[in-house]
Write a structure and sequence with these properties.
It is a single chain. By secondary structure, the protein is mainly β. Helices cover about 0% and strands about 55% of the residues. The chain is built from one helix and 34 strands. It has one helix at about 415-420; strands at about 10, 20-25, 30-45, 45-55, 60-65, 70-80, 85-95, 95-105, 110-115, 120-125, 130-135, 140-145, 150-155, 160-170, 175-180, 200-210, 215-220, 225-230, 235-240, 245-250, 260, 265, 280-285, 290-295, 305-315, 320-325, 340-345, 350, 360-365, 365-370, 380-385, 390-395, 400-405, 410. The strands form eight sheets. Strands 2, 3, 4, 5, 6, 7, 8 and 9 form an eight-stranded antiparallel β-sheet that branches. It has a five-stranded mixed β-sheet with strand order 14-15-16-17-21, with no helix packed on it. The longest helix has 6 residues, at about 415-420. The two termini are about 15 Å apart.
Length: about 425
């Protein structure tokens, strides 16, 4: 099924020896934001990076240093669809989380900084940059943009929660956030790639944005911890994936329902999947709804690996279109274009010699995959020396921007993708 190891148009290493945990791409595919990190280490060289590309080369427009003796660094980045505004979040060290916002064209002089007591786990931004949502600890943080920059317009605190993921529609009108409630709250700050030893249940919240004010529309309590949430571009549907490999699909109630109920809950019938970090959703202009996901598979006597698969909503029931085995466990770098032509996937995992040790693990290699969203046909797989976490695709489906724990960022242009369909 694999055709070749298609090389990217270009690859750049922002700072050798540091990881890249997140990438984001503008709608036109030519404005890129990323940041450097190190899961188990500190550095004086972590930074946020803004690149422009015409497709064949990368031009660094500016970089913003996090400072000296920083731990972990940039965990998540976002850029508005129009490419004009961006955000980056992470942590400086234990108890020192941050969110930075930018007017991308103005550069560093436009930077605003918001401080928190824990790491920003995800940040997402509307298409025109007018609204931002981020999650950290038990909190959902909401920002609006005015003439003088961003204002933190609201904070929603979820009692007992640890919020892992969030999403916002391009028009900024709907926000979704998900996470966990732990039986042992000390486990909340777990490894980036490692499961928690303690049990947890899942929580999901939906809000509307009414003139810069959050309007609560409902919540859902899942049996298992929620790792990822995504919302369709039109805001009509949203989905969640869990620590036990489930995928849940919801329809936006528009009006307050308090207790939300999923249209369906999907559990893979062929393989008992565990952690499902990988999740993507697309409601096409013609009204066909697709949800892609991927989960870890841990056989009894072999190293763990994973699967990526595609679900189609048919009469409010999940129909699986395909499932593909991956070399390693899938990570959050799963995304679809706005027409459900392509779906991306990224894999790789740490190797823990001692499950109770806090020592940095070694890592497997990683892969970046591009699949046909309808059939699962593998257009290409690109292998890197270490595991891969982020992989994004623009709405038009003609530009892909990815990052690796080996420190590299990678870009595939429209030519690379379109030639595979000839």
């Amino acid at each position: 099924m694999e055709q070749d190891q298609t090389a990217p148009n270009w690859s750049v290493t922002p700072y050798p020896g540091l990881q890249v945990n997140s990438t984001a791409i503008s709608d036109d595919g030519y404005n890129l934001i990323t940041g450097t990190s190190a899961e188990y280490d500190s550095s004086d060289n972590f930074a946020v990076y803004y690149y422009k590309t015409e497709g064949s080369t990368a031009t660094l427009m500016w970089q913003d240093s996090l400072g000296q003796n920083i731990q972990q660094g940039v965990f998540w980045v976002a850029i508005s669809g129009d490419g004009n505004y961006g955000a980056a979040g992470g942590q400086y060290g234990t108890g020192k989380g941050f969110l930075r916002t930018y007017d991308m064209g103005v550069g560093l002089s436009s930077k605003q900084e918001f401080s928190y007591t824990s790491r920003i786990n995800e940040v997402e931004i509307s298409s025109d940059g007018s609204a931002i949502v981020a999650v950290e600890s038990a909190n959902i943080q909401f920002f609006t943009k005015g003439t003088s920059g961003y204002t933190q317009a609201a904070t929603e605190t979820i009692p007992g929660g640890y919020m892992r993921s969030c999403g916002i529609t391009p028009d900024g009108q709907y926000l979704v956030a998900g996470g966990e409630v732990y039986s042992d709250t000390d486990e909340a700050m777990d490894y980036r790639h490692k499961d928690n030893a303690s049990s947890s249940t899942g929580i999901l919240y939906l809000y509307g944005n009414v003139s810069g004010t959050l309007n609560y529309l409902g919540h859902y309590e899942a049996d298992y911890g929620i790792l990822r949430v995504v919302i369709s571009r039109d805001g009509k549907y949203f989905a969640a994936s869990t620590k036990q490999g489930q995928v849940l699909l919801f329809a936006n109630p528009i009006t307050k329902q308090d207790k939300l109920m999923p249209l369906w809950v999907y559990t893979n019938p062929d393989y008992q999947l565990s952690l499902s970090y990988a999740l993507a959703i697309c409601n096409t202009p013609s009204g066909e709804l697709y949800v892609a996901s991927g989960g870890n598979f841990v056989p009894s006597s072999n190293p763990a690996y994973g699967y990526a698969y595609m679900l189609k909503n048919v009469n409010n029931a999940p129909q699986r279109l395909w499932i593909n085995k991956l070399d390693y466990c899938p990570n959050p770098g799963m995304n679809m274009d706005a027409y459900a032509k392509f779906v991306t996937s990224a894999d790789g995992q740490p190797i823990f010699s001692d499950e109770d040790s806090a020592a940095p693990p070694s890592e497997t290699q990683g892969n970046f995959y591009l699949f046909n969203a309808q059939t699962g046909y593998e257009y290409w797989k690109y292998t890197t020396s270490l595991m891969n976490w982020p992989m994004t695709i623009n709405p038009g489906g003609y530009a892909v921007f990815s990052g690796s724990d080996n420190g590299g960022i990678y870009y595939w242009s429209p030519l690379n993708l379109l030639e595979k369909e000839k």
